[in-house]
Amino acid sequence: MTMKPKLSSGDLTPIATRAITEVLAVQLKRVAEPVTPGDERLKEATGHHLHATVTLTGERIVGAVLFQVPVEFATKVAEQLLGSDVETDDSKDVTGELGNMISGLVKGELSSAGYHGTLGTPTVTLGSRITLHAPADSELCTTEWSCEGHLLSLQIQLSHPHPAA
Asked: CATH code for 9-34+47-159?
């Protein structure tokens, strides 16, 4: 069996792009536009955010998908989906579900490329924006998005486990 080369962050960017744009368009009927890394809006992305983190574990890859949204965006989405005023827990649930759908699409594309894995249960936290830092032996893809004036972030961090001796 021929082993595929390791994934790079360049391989992950189109996967991240397809995952977030598809979930927002299909599930929420919303458009996400990419934000370039030097965009001044990123410096202003403060305030409380909800973070949905989903782990991915496989024989050839391990890592996580981190989807972050401002609380205000999560509340609007929860109200859209649930049809009424919502509580913080509703916004957390919706953020976790969006993170799970995005992670599922990421997993599907990685599996198609020969990197099979299992997704963990989404963990949702509240706090400031998080920037992942990749260890030397891993890849990190960070994509930033604007959706209806809100800045969203999708980060994928993957490493290739060393085979057992």
From this structure: 3.40.1550.10
How confident is the model over 76-114, as pLDDT tens digits? 999 999 988 898 899 999 999 999 999 999 999 999 999
**Domain chopping of the chain, boundaries:** 9-34+47-159
Q: What is the pLDDT of residues 33-43, one digit of tens each?
A: 999 888 877 77
What is the model's pTM? Answer: 0.91
DSSP string, the chain: -PPPPPP-HHHHHHHHHHHHHHHHHHHH----EEE-TT-GGGGG--S-EEEEEEEEE-SS-EEEEEEEEEHHHHHHHHHHHHSS---HHHHHHHHHHHHHHHHHHHHHHHHHTT---EE---EEEEES-------TTEEEEEEEEEETTEEEEEEEEEE-PPPP-
